[in-house]
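User: I'm putting together a small comparison set for a docking exercise, and I want a reference complex before I start. The sequence is below, and the ligand is magnesium ion. Could you produce the 3D structure with the ligand included, as C-alpha coordinates?
Assistant: Of course. I'll restate your input first, then give the C-alpha coordinates for the complex.
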Amino acid sequence: MIVAGVMSGTSADGINVALVRIAGPSRGPYGHDLTVKLLGHAEYRYPRNVRHFILSAMNATRIPVADLARLNFLLPELYAEAVLATEKRLARKAKLVGCHGQTLYHQGEAAPFLGRKLAVTWQSGDGAVLATRLGVPVVSDFRPADMAAGGKGAPLVPLFDFFLYRDPRRGRIAQNLGGIANLTAIPADASPGEVLAFDTGPGNMVIDAVTERLFHRPFDRDGRIAAGGRVLDRVVTDVLREPFFRRAPPKTAGREEFGQDFVRGLLGRCRRARASDIVATATALTAQSIAEALRRFVLKKPGQYQDYIVSGGGVRNSTLMTMLAKQLLPLGLEISSSDKFGIPSEAKEAAAFALLAYQTWNRRPSNLPSATGATRPALLGKISYG
Ligand SMILES: Nc1ncnc2c1ncn2[C@@H]1O[C@H](COP(=O)(O)OP(=O)(O)O)[C@@H](O)[C@H]1O
Ligand SMILES: [Mg+2]
Protein backbone atom coordinates (compact mmCIF):
# COMPACT_ATOMS: atom_id res chain seq x y z
CA MET A 1 0.00 0.00 0.00
CA ILE A 2 1.26 3.50 -0.79
CA VAL A 3 0.88 5.79 2.21
CA ALA A 4 1.69 9.49 2.52
CA GLY A 5 3.05 10.94 5.73
CA VAL A 6 2.69 14.65 6.43
CA MET A 7 4.82 16.25 9.13
CA SER A 8 5.10 19.79 10.39
CA GLY A 9 7.36 19.99 13.41
CA THR A 10 7.96 22.38 16.28
CA SER A 11 10.38 24.45 14.16
CA ALA A 12 7.25 25.60 12.26
CA ASP A 13 9.46 25.88 9.18
CA GLY A 14 7.02 24.07 6.91
CA ILE A 15 5.57 20.79 5.72
CA ASN A 16 7.43 17.57 4.90
CA VAL A 17 5.63 14.98 2.79
CA ALA A 18 6.92 11.43 2.30
CA LEU A 19 5.40 8.75 0.12
CA VAL A 20 6.22 5.24 1.29
CA ARG A 21 5.30 1.74 0.21
CA ILE A 22 4.48 -0.59 3.08
CA ALA A 23 4.23 -4.31 2.39
CA GLY A 24 5.00 -7.79 3.58
CA PRO A 25 4.03 -10.15 6.37
CA SER A 26 3.40 -8.84 9.82
CA ARG A 27 4.50 -10.48 13.02
CA GLY A 28 3.76 -9.78 16.67
CA PRO A 29 1.49 -7.07 18.05
CA TYR A 30 3.36 -4.36 16.11
CA GLY A 31 3.59 -6.27 12.81
CA HIS A 32 7.31 -5.74 12.71
CA ASP A 33 8.24 -7.82 9.68
CA LEU A 34 6.69 -5.23 7.39
CA THR A 35 8.97 -3.52 4.92
CA VAL A 36 8.81 0.24 4.56
CA LYS A 37 10.32 1.73 1.41
CA LEU A 38 10.55 5.44 0.74
CA LEU A 39 9.31 6.34 -2.75
CA GLY A 40 10.12 10.02 -2.47
CA HIS A 41 9.62 13.12 -0.41
CA ALA A 42 9.31 16.88 -0.68
CA GLU A 43 9.51 19.86 1.62
CA TYR A 44 7.33 22.99 1.43
CA ARG A 45 8.05 26.13 3.40
CA TYR A 46 5.12 27.72 5.19
CA PRO A 47 4.33 31.18 3.80
CA ARG A 48 6.03 33.76 6.04
CA ASN A 49 2.81 35.07 7.56
CA VAL A 50 1.58 31.54 8.35
CA ARG A 51 4.86 30.71 10.09
CA HIS A 52 4.66 33.88 12.14
CA PHE A 53 1.07 33.20 13.13
CA ILE A 54 1.95 29.65 14.22
CA LEU A 55 4.92 30.80 16.27
CA SER A 56 2.85 33.49 17.96
CA ALA A 57 0.02 31.02 18.65
CA MET A 58 2.47 28.57 20.29
CA ASN A 59 3.70 31.22 22.65
CA ALA A 60 0.43 33.05 23.24
CA THR A 61 -1.24 33.59 26.57
CA ARG A 62 -4.06 35.42 24.75
CA ILE A 63 -5.14 34.82 21.18
CA PRO A 64 -8.60 35.00 19.55
CA VAL A 65 -10.27 31.60 19.59
CA ALA A 66 -11.68 32.44 16.15
CA ASP A 67 -8.15 32.66 14.73
CA LEU A 68 -7.26 29.27 16.22
CA ALA A 69 -10.36 27.77 14.57
CA ARG A 70 -9.31 29.39 11.28
CA LEU A 71 -5.80 27.99 11.55
CA ASN A 72 -7.29 24.52 12.11
CA PHE A 73 -8.99 24.83 8.71
CA LEU A 74 -6.18 26.66 6.90
CA LEU A 75 -3.52 24.04 7.67
CA PRO A 76 -5.30 21.10 5.98
CA GLU A 77 -5.64 23.22 2.83
CA LEU A 78 -1.85 23.70 2.83
CA TYR A 79 -1.26 20.04 3.68
CA ALA A 80 -3.56 18.94 0.83
CA GLU A 81 -1.70 21.12 -1.66
CA ALA A 82 1.60 19.73 -0.42
CA VAL A 83 0.43 16.10 -0.77
CA LEU A 84 -1.06 16.67 -4.23
CA ALA A 85 2.10 18.42 -5.46
CA THR A 86 4.27 15.57 -4.16
CA GLU A 87 2.03 12.91 -5.73
CA LYS A 88 2.16 14.75 -9.03
CA ARG A 89 5.93 15.04 -8.96
CA LEU A 90 6.39 11.36 -8.12
CA ALA A 91 3.54 10.23 -10.38
CA ARG A 92 2.12 8.10 -7.55
CA LYS A 93 -1.01 8.34 -5.48
CA ALA A 94 -1.39 7.49 -1.80
CA LYS A 95 -4.30 5.31 -0.65
CA LEU A 96 -3.96 6.47 2.94
CA VAL A 97 -2.49 9.53 4.66
CA GLY A 98 -1.01 10.02 8.12
CA CYS A 99 -0.97 13.65 9.18
CA HIS A 100 0.74 14.76 12.38
CA GLY A 101 -0.61 18.32 12.36
CA GLN A 102 1.01 21.36 13.91
CA THR A 103 1.53 21.15 17.66
CA LEU A 104 0.31 24.31 19.34
CA TYR A 105 0.66 23.02 22.87
CA HIS A 106 2.08 19.89 24.44
CA GLN A 107 2.29 19.12 28.12
CA GLY A 108 3.19 15.47 28.59
CA GLU A 109 3.36 15.73 32.37
CA ALA A 110 0.02 15.87 34.26
CA ALA A 111 -0.67 19.20 35.97
CA PRO A 112 -3.69 20.52 37.92
CA PHE A 113 -6.51 22.17 35.97
CA LEU A 114 -9.96 22.99 37.39
CA GLY A 115 -9.69 20.37 40.08
CA ARG A 116 -8.22 17.58 37.93
CA LYS A 117 -4.68 16.58 37.04
CA LEU A 118 -4.28 16.34 33.28
CA ALA A 119 -1.62 15.77 30.65
CA VAL A 120 -2.71 17.53 27.46
CA THR A 121 -1.72 18.06 23.84
CA TRP A 122 -3.07 19.87 20.82
CA GLN A 123 -2.22 19.38 17.16
CA SER A 124 -3.94 21.77 14.77
CA GLY A 125 -4.94 20.80 11.21
CA ASP A 126 -8.32 19.12 10.78
CA GLY A 127 -8.19 15.56 9.41
CA ALA A 128 -11.69 15.61 7.89
CA VAL A 129 -10.88 18.66 5.76
CA LEU A 130 -7.68 17.00 4.53
CA ALA A 131 -9.45 13.70 3.79
CA THR A 132 -12.14 15.53 1.83
CA ARG A 133 -9.59 17.43 -0.25
CA LEU A 134 -7.58 14.29 -1.01
CA GLY A 135 -10.45 11.81 -1.35
CA VAL A 136 -8.64 9.16 0.70
CA PRO A 137 -8.74 8.25 4.41
CA VAL A 138 -6.59 10.33 6.74
CA VAL A 139 -5.33 9.34 10.18
CA SER A 140 -4.59 12.38 12.35
CA ASP A 141 -4.27 13.33 16.03
CA PHE A 142 -1.92 10.53 17.01
CA ARG A 143 -0.87 11.71 20.44
CA PRO A 144 -4.01 11.76 22.64
CA ALA A 145 -4.58 7.98 22.68
CA ASP A 146 -1.11 7.42 24.13
CA MET A 147 -1.74 10.08 26.76
CA ALA A 148 -5.11 8.59 27.64
CA ALA A 149 -3.18 5.38 28.35
CA GLY A 150 -0.91 7.23 30.76
CA GLY A 151 1.86 8.12 28.28
CA LYS A 152 3.48 11.44 27.53
CA GLY A 153 2.18 11.38 23.93
CA ALA A 154 5.74 11.51 22.65
CA PRO A 155 8.03 10.42 21.17
CA LEU A 156 6.05 8.41 18.58
CA VAL A 157 8.75 7.98 15.94
CA PRO A 158 10.58 5.19 17.88
CA LEU A 159 8.40 2.47 16.33
CA PHE A 160 9.58 3.60 12.90
CA ASP A 161 13.19 3.68 14.12
CA PHE A 162 12.71 0.16 15.41
CA PHE A 163 11.34 -1.09 12.08
CA LEU A 164 14.09 0.64 10.15
CA TYR A 165 17.24 0.21 12.20
CA ARG A 166 16.97 -2.86 14.43
CA ASP A 167 19.84 -5.21 13.76
CA PRO A 168 20.69 -8.67 15.09
CA ARG A 169 24.26 -7.66 15.93
CA ARG A 170 24.59 -3.88 16.16
CA GLY A 171 23.17 -1.59 18.81
CA ARG A 172 21.93 1.59 17.19
CA ILE A 173 20.95 5.05 18.32
CA ALA A 174 18.76 7.16 16.02
CA GLN A 175 19.07 10.88 16.72
CA ASN A 176 16.65 13.39 15.24
CA LEU A 177 17.62 17.06 15.16
CA GLY A 178 14.34 18.89 14.65
CA GLY A 179 13.25 21.89 16.69
CA ILE A 180 13.67 19.52 19.63
CA ALA A 181 16.33 16.80 19.66
CA ASN A 182 15.19 13.28 20.42
CA LEU A 183 16.83 9.90 20.33
CA THR A 184 15.82 6.26 20.05
CA ALA A 185 18.24 3.63 21.37
CA ILE A 186 17.76 0.11 19.99
CA PRO A 187 20.02 -2.57 21.49
CA ALA A 188 21.20 -5.40 19.20
CA ASP A 189 18.43 -7.95 18.60
CA ALA A 190 15.98 -5.89 20.66
CA SER A 191 12.30 -6.57 21.13
CA PRO A 192 9.98 -3.51 21.04
CA GLY A 193 9.89 -3.45 24.86
CA GLU A 194 13.66 -2.85 25.06
CA VAL A 195 13.69 0.35 23.02
CA LEU A 196 14.60 3.48 24.96
CA ALA A 197 13.58 6.88 23.55
CA PHE A 198 13.25 10.42 24.85
CA ASP A 199 13.80 14.08 24.08
CA THR A 200 17.34 15.18 24.91
CA GLY A 201 16.53 18.91 24.84
CA PRO A 202 16.75 21.60 22.17
CA GLY A 203 17.66 20.66 18.60
CA ASN A 204 17.48 23.71 16.34
CA MET A 205 14.86 25.61 18.31
CA VAL A 206 17.18 27.69 20.46
CA ILE A 207 19.69 28.21 17.63
CA ASP A 208 16.84 29.43 15.40
CA ALA A 209 15.49 31.78 18.07
CA VAL A 210 18.79 33.50 18.85
CA THR A 211 19.64 33.75 15.12
CA GLU A 212 16.27 35.39 14.49
CA ARG A 213 16.71 37.77 17.43
CA LEU A 214 20.31 38.77 16.72
CA PHE A 215 20.62 38.41 12.93
CA HIS A 216 17.00 38.64 11.71
CA ARG A 217 17.31 35.36 9.85
CA PRO A 218 15.09 32.32 10.48
CA PHE A 219 18.06 29.95 11.03
CA ASP A 220 21.85 29.79 10.95
CA ARG A 221 22.33 28.51 7.41
CA ASP A 222 24.94 25.72 7.35
CA GLY A 223 26.02 26.88 10.82
CA ARG A 224 28.08 29.71 9.31
CA ILE A 225 27.40 32.24 12.07
CA ALA A 226 28.24 29.74 14.82
CA ALA A 227 31.42 28.78 12.97
CA GLY A 228 32.67 32.36 13.40
CA GLY A 229 31.76 32.57 17.11
CA ARG A 230 33.36 31.39 20.32
CA VAL A 231 31.42 29.12 22.70
CA LEU A 232 30.81 30.50 26.19
CA ASP A 233 31.57 27.25 28.01
CA ARG A 234 30.50 28.55 31.40
CA VAL A 235 27.02 29.37 30.07
CA VAL A 236 26.62 25.89 28.56
CA THR A 237 27.71 24.23 31.81
CA ASP A 238 25.30 26.37 33.84
CA VAL A 239 22.34 25.71 31.57
CA LEU A 240 23.00 21.96 31.60
CA ARG A 241 22.40 22.02 35.38
CA GLU A 242 18.72 22.84 34.78
CA PRO A 243 16.27 20.14 35.93
CA PHE A 244 15.12 19.05 32.47
CA PHE A 245 18.58 17.74 31.54
CA ARG A 246 18.96 15.83 34.81
CA ARG A 247 15.52 14.23 34.79
CA ALA A 248 15.51 10.54 33.84
CA PRO A 249 13.46 9.39 30.83
CA PRO A 250 10.69 9.08 29.79
CA LYS A 251 10.62 12.82 29.12
CA THR A 252 9.46 15.15 26.38
CA ALA A 253 10.18 18.76 25.53
CA GLY A 254 8.77 21.46 23.30
CA ARG A 255 8.41 25.17 22.97
CA GLU A 256 7.01 25.11 26.52
CA GLU A 257 10.51 24.18 27.80
CA PHE A 258 12.81 25.72 25.18
CA GLY A 259 10.76 28.59 23.73
CA GLN A 260 10.80 32.31 24.39
CA ASP A 261 11.30 32.19 28.16
CA PHE A 262 14.26 29.85 27.89
CA VAL A 263 15.85 32.00 25.17
CA ARG A 264 15.38 35.13 27.26
CA GLY A 265 17.23 33.40 30.12
CA LEU A 266 20.03 32.29 27.81
CA LEU A 267 20.48 35.79 26.36
CA GLY A 268 20.57 37.13 29.92
CA ARG A 269 23.43 34.75 30.79
CA CYS A 270 25.30 35.79 27.62
CA ARG A 271 25.20 39.54 28.39
CA ARG A 272 27.94 41.51 26.64
CA ALA A 273 29.01 38.56 24.45
CA ARG A 274 29.29 39.07 20.68
CA ALA A 275 26.18 38.05 18.73
CA SER A 276 28.03 35.26 16.90
CA ASP A 277 29.35 33.91 20.23
CA ILE A 278 25.76 33.57 21.41
CA VAL A 279 24.77 31.57 18.32
CA ALA A 280 27.88 29.38 18.83
CA THR A 281 26.88 28.89 22.47
CA ALA A 282 23.32 27.88 21.55
CA THR A 283 24.77 25.41 19.04
CA ALA A 284 27.14 23.95 21.64
CA LEU A 285 24.24 23.62 24.06
CA THR A 286 22.46 21.28 21.62
CA ALA A 287 25.60 19.18 21.04
CA GLN A 288 26.58 18.96 24.70
CA SER A 289 23.08 18.28 25.98
CA ILE A 290 22.90 15.30 23.63
CA ALA A 291 26.28 13.94 24.75
CA GLU A 292 25.27 14.45 28.37
CA ALA A 293 21.98 12.57 27.84
CA LEU A 294 23.87 9.70 26.19
CA ARG A 295 26.31 9.43 29.07
CA ARG A 296 23.67 9.74 31.77
CA PHE A 297 20.83 7.63 30.43
CA VAL A 298 21.89 5.49 27.46
CA LEU A 299 25.50 4.29 27.48
CA LYS A 300 25.31 2.20 30.62
CA LYS A 301 26.87 -1.05 29.41
CA PRO A 302 30.15 -0.67 27.47
CA GLY A 303 29.92 -1.78 23.84
CA GLN A 304 26.11 -1.95 23.78
CA TYR A 305 25.80 0.60 20.94
CA GLN A 306 27.87 0.99 17.78
CA ASP A 307 25.95 3.20 15.35
CA TYR A 308 24.63 6.74 15.78
CA ILE A 309 22.29 7.69 12.93
CA VAL A 310 21.34 11.34 12.58
CA SER A 311 18.30 12.88 10.84
CA GLY A 312 16.31 16.14 10.80
CA GLY A 313 17.04 19.65 9.55
CA GLY A 314 19.94 20.07 12.00
CA VAL A 315 22.03 17.68 9.88
CA ARG A 316 22.49 20.63 7.50
CA ASN A 317 24.07 22.75 10.22
CA SER A 318 27.71 21.74 9.75
CA THR A 319 28.93 23.54 12.87
CA LEU A 320 26.40 21.61 14.96
CA MET A 321 27.45 18.35 13.30
CA THR A 322 31.16 19.08 13.92
CA MET A 323 30.51 19.87 17.58
CA LEU A 324 28.40 16.72 17.93
CA ALA A 325 31.08 14.56 16.29
CA LYS A 326 33.66 15.94 18.72
CA GLN A 327 31.41 15.16 21.68
CA LEU A 328 30.70 11.62 20.46
CA LEU A 329 34.24 10.61 19.60
CA PRO A 330 35.14 9.51 23.15
CA LEU A 331 31.83 7.62 23.39
CA GLY A 332 32.86 5.14 20.69
CA LEU A 333 29.90 5.72 18.39
CA GLU A 334 30.12 5.68 14.61
CA ILE A 335 28.16 8.65 13.22
CA SER A 336 26.24 8.48 9.96
CA SER A 337 23.27 10.22 8.42
CA SER A 338 19.94 8.43 7.94
CA ASP A 339 20.52 8.91 4.19
CA LYS A 340 22.82 5.91 4.39
CA PHE A 341 19.87 3.80 5.54
CA GLY A 342 17.63 4.84 2.66
CA ILE A 343 15.78 7.68 4.39
CA PRO A 344 17.02 11.22 3.66
CA SER A 345 17.33 13.08 6.94
CA GLU A 346 14.54 15.56 6.19
CA ALA A 347 12.08 12.79 5.20
CA LYS A 348 12.28 10.57 8.25
CA GLU A 349 9.62 12.02 10.52
CA ALA A 350 7.12 12.33 7.66
CA ALA A 351 7.78 8.70 6.66
CA ALA A 352 7.26 7.69 10.29
CA PHE A 353 3.74 9.14 10.32
CA ALA A 354 2.92 7.20 7.15
CA LEU A 355 3.83 4.02 9.04
CA LEU A 356 1.80 5.10 12.08
CA ALA A 357 -1.26 5.69 9.87
CA TYR A 358 -0.81 2.24 8.32
CA GLN A 359 -0.66 0.69 11.79
CA THR A 360 -3.88 2.37 12.87
CA TRP A 361 -5.61 1.48 9.61
CA ASN A 362 -4.74 -2.16 10.34
CA ARG A 363 -5.81 -1.89 13.98
CA ARG A 364 -2.30 -2.24 15.31
CA PRO A 365 -0.72 -0.12 18.04
CA SER A 366 2.23 2.18 17.40
CA ASN A 367 3.27 3.70 20.70
CA LEU A 368 6.11 1.99 22.53
CA PRO A 369 5.31 2.11 26.27
CA SER A 370 9.05 2.04 27.05
CA ALA A 371 9.37 5.34 25.13
CA THR A 372 6.21 7.23 26.10
CA GLY A 373 5.59 5.82 29.56
CA ALA A 374 2.10 4.56 28.59
CA THR A 375 0.73 1.62 30.54
CA ARG A 376 0.04 -0.34 27.32
CA PRO A 377 0.36 -0.31 23.53
CA ALA A 378 -2.44 1.82 22.07
CA LEU A 379 -4.12 2.33 18.70
CA LEU A 380 -3.29 5.90 17.83
CA GLY A 381 -5.21 8.57 15.98
CA LYS A 382 -8.58 9.42 14.49
CA ILE A 383 -9.67 8.25 11.08
CA SER A 384 -11.48 10.58 8.62
CA TYR A 385 -12.75 8.60 5.64
CA GLY A 386 -12.79 11.36 3.00
N1 LIG B 1 20.83 24.62 5.55
C1 LIG B 1 20.58 24.62 6.86
N2 LIG B 1 21.52 25.06 7.74
C2 LIG B 1 21.30 25.07 9.06
N3 LIG B 1 20.15 24.66 9.63
C3 LIG B 1 19.17 24.21 8.82
C4 LIG B 1 19.33 24.15 7.40
N4 LIG B 1 18.18 23.65 6.88
C5 LIG B 1 17.36 23.39 7.93
N5 LIG B 1 17.94 23.73 9.09
C6 LIG B 1 17.40 23.67 10.44
O1 LIG B 1 16.43 22.64 10.49
C7 LIG B 1 15.21 23.14 11.08
C8 LIG B 1 14.04 22.35 10.55
O2 LIG B 1 14.25 21.01 10.86
P1 LIG B 1 13.06 19.97 10.92
O3 LIG B 1 13.69 18.62 10.95
O4 LIG B 1 12.07 20.29 9.85
O5 LIG B 1 12.46 20.31 12.34
P2 LIG B 1 10.95 20.23 12.86
O6 LIG B 1 10.60 18.78 12.83
O7 LIG B 1 11.00 20.81 14.23
O8 LIG B 1 10.14 21.06 11.89
C9 LIG B 1 15.21 24.61 10.69
O9 LIG B 1 14.42 25.36 11.59
C10 LIG B 1 16.69 24.96 10.81
O10 LIG B 1 17.02 25.26 12.11
MG1 LIG C 1 10.09 21.00 9.88
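The chain has a mean pLDDT of 95. The two ends are 17 Å apart (CA to CA).
User: Thanks, that's exactly what I needed.
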